[in-house]
Write a structure and sequence with these properties.
Strand order of the largest sheet: 9-14-13-12
Distance between the termini: 46 Å
Order of helices and strands: HEEEEEEHEHHEHHEHHEEEEEE
Number of strands: 15
Shape: globular
Oligomer: single chain
Amino acid sequence: MSIQIRRIFLITTLLMLIMIQFLSAQKNFIVITKKDNTKSAVPIDNIDNMTFTEGGFADIDGNVYKTIIINGKEWMAENLRVTRYRNGLSITDVWPADGSEANVDTYGRLYSWYEVNKHVAEGDPGYNIAPEGWHVPTDEEWKELEMYLGMSQSEADGDGVRGTNEGSKLAGRADLWFDGVLENDSEFGASGFTGLPAGWCDSGSFMVLSIVTGFWTASERNINSAWERELGYYGSGVIRGNQDKGYGFSVRCVRD
């Protein structure tokens, strides 16, 4: 290769890197670095769903999570498994799904809403159970997700079972669910969110593994309860309910 060609190649490469870094800084693009070290910038507006199959990030315990982009937001595609706050102290109200550590790799852990909200109650971000750069989604963020998948605004604002098959779209792993309406829907698993039937915990009693799952939101309803979402094998919609803050539910996070 001649010196002139080498110069042109180096200048072109440098300009491409500058352009990619600039686009990335605008937060309208995602920069992808491939294994051969080539880079490309993809506009977020052009992305529908994208799964990071080798894990998108790790928590303070070293657990690595897959993530997925839905409607321009990056969501965890697995349930939270962390046992420590950001400050390194142990989380108090946390349980393995169905009370067994053998279930954690698949179903994650269950948390009380008090743990979801502890960083707010304490006025200390060190008590956040969400990994750095992430947060537990609010009730409104869940509504945005559901409406992107097909719910109307009026449906999303309602309580109880809502929508048509948005629950089936949010669920995943048919082999883990009891056979029923949820998994028999033709769009089961379509979103890539991969909601799993982790059941829940009530006063130390574990129930309904393989039958239902519940996800806390970060939104309080009143002094005793907070908003949550439920999926069940018996229906294809999504339940918007409010449960006692002491219940143990699964947690998903969204990138800040």
